[in-house]
Structures are given as structure tokens and as C-alpha cells.
Amino acid sequence: MNAFDLTGKLAVVTGARRGIGRAMARALAEAGADVVGVSASLEESGSDVEKDVLAAGRTFEAIRTDFADPEAVRALGADLAGRERPVDILVNNAGTIRRAPATEHTDADWELVLQVNLSAQFAVTRAVGGAMVSRGQGKVIFTASLLSFQGGITVPGYTAAKHGVAGLTKALANEWAPHGVNVNAIAPGYIATDNTQALRDDPVRSKAILDRIPAGRWGDADDLAGATVFPASGAAAYMHGVVLPVDGGWLGR
Ligand SMILES: NC(=O)c1ccc[n+]([C@@H]2O[C@H](COP(=O)([O-])OP(=O)(O)OC[C@H]3O[C@@H](n4cnc5c(N)ncnc54)[C@H](OP(=O)(O)O)[C@@H]3O)[C@@H](O)[C@H]2O)c1
User: Fold this and answer.
1) Does the 2-238 domain belong in CATH 3.30.1330.30?
2) Mean pLDDT of 131-159
3) Residue 62: per-residue pLDDT
4) Is ligand 1 within 6 A of the CB of residue 129?
5) 10-14 β-sheet, strand order
6) What's the pLDDT tens digit per position in 58-91?
7) Residue nearest to atom 46 of ligand 1 (CA)
8) Residue 238 falls in the annotated catalytic set
9) How far apart (Å, rounded) are the C-alpha atoms in residues 179 and 129?
10) 206 C-alpha to center of ligand 1: Å?
11) How far away, in angstroms, is 182 Cα from ligand 1 center?
12) Is the pLDDT of residue 1 over 80?
């Protein structure tokens, strides 16, 4: 028996169009899951993530939703929770970032980052997780961050949101573990995606970050693959409320 096998499962991955979410969707598909991908500008068909999932021999459905729009997020939650084929795995990965010192961090940026990275995650999970609780099974995985543990530099809204994600992971795990639903989070380290392009373009920040990573390199989105499949699978049946760093050793330093 392979406890990591996801054959027959349906996984929803938000922020699946590129970066970490795309790698997560591919990893889940390669482990056997069919995938519903969600993102702000996901192509109806022909996206890179769709090609990855189909290449793994699984089905793919694309949903375009802007997480900055609370009404659209509520509609997405209701759609996913009300389907005949239930969602077995929900990966709350969509996220955005705004970089500015606290004194220059505008209300608009603060509200956008909190809405997309935290409030939308809660709204979708309340709906889809509620259906999992009713069925007595399901896996919820949030994408947290090193900034769920640390303050970060000039990203106060993002840090507040990611601390919130860590707290929400534990709060939901407390409530839903007795109902057979596992809620956990993955905290990626510094991963080379569009989210971190500005850091990699800044020679000072880029070197300071690299110098602190014991593994001696930035992460690649595929470095999250195994850590995504694990909490999505039966192998993690007794794991609840964990925020799992996958960071090249950054936090242990
Ligand atoms: N890269 C890192 O080092 C790192 C480290 C820790 C945590 N994270 C977290 O990992 C997650 C994925 O980030 P990434 O690095 O893969 O970044 P990315 O390459 O910028 O991808 C972000 C994804 O989120 C989606 N998204 C952004 N705003 C959205 C909105 N308003 N509505 C719906 N979807 C939206 C994007 O959709 P479109 O493609 O359609 O625009 C995209 O698919 C985020 O939660 C991020 O905070 C990243």
C-alpha cells in the first residue's frame, strides 16, 4: 500500500497558474489526483498547469476568480462546496505581495494583501472545509511563509497576512481534527518565482538572502512537491495544525 497515493482524489489548487501553485498542482496530479486550478487570470484552456496535469494523466478544470473581489470569492466557495464530486484536497496558495516601508504602505495595499492572502483563504475554506466536515474527511493545505514566523523587510501587510494564515491553520485544525479533516500549512523559504523577482533583481538583498540559506541556493517551486503531497495524503492522517517550513534550512540557522 502506498500511503502517499492520491488516485481518485479531487484537488483544488488556488494560484495554480504559475510559480509554487503550478508545481503543487503538478505534484498532486503525479500522485494521482485530478485538479481544479483557480487563479485571477487562468486561461480557460491551454494553460501551462493544465498541460502539466494532463501530461500526468489526470483531468483538469480551470476557474478564473479574482480573490480581491469578496463576492467572487464567496461564489467560488459555494460552487466548490456544492458539487456532486466532492473536493478531497484544498490547497490555499493564491497570494500577492506589496513592498513598501510601513510609513509608505498605503491602505489600498494593506487591504488588497489582507483580502487576497487571508480573508479570501478563509472564505473559500469555510465553504469547502464545511463540506469536508460534513463528510468526515478532507485535507486543507495553506501556503504560509517564513513571514508566518518572522517580520520580513518592508512587507508589513504580507507579514500580517501570513502570520494570520499560520493562526488560521491552527484554529481550523482545532475545530476540524475531531471531524476527520486535516488542516496544515507549508511555509516555503525563498523560492524563485514572480513573487520574489524584485528581491532577486536587487543585488544587495539577493546576496544577503543567499548567504543565509544553509542549503546554499534559492528554492525552486518543485522543491515544494513532496511537502505538498504528504499533507494531502493518508500518510498525514494524524498531522493537524502544523506549519511545515521547506526553506533550505533558513529557520534553523
Ligand atoms: N516565492 C516565494 O519565495 C514564496 C515564499 C513563501 C510563500 N510564498 C507564497 O506562495 C504562494 C504562491 O506564490 P508564488 O511565489 O508562486 O507567486 P507567483 O508566481 O506570483 O504566483 C501567485 C499566484 O497567485 C495568484 N494570484 C495572485 N493574486 C491573485 C488574485 N487577486 N486572485 C486570484 N489569484 C491570485 C496568481 O494568479 P495569476 O497567475 O492568474 O495572476 C498566481 O497564480 C503565495 O501565497 C505566496 O505568498 C511564496
Assistant:
1) no
2) 98
3) 98
4) no
5) 60-64, 34-39, 10-14, 89-92, 138-143, 181-188, 243-246
6) 999 999 999 999 999 999 999 999 999 999 999 9
7) 95
8) no
9) 11
10) 19
11) 23
12) no
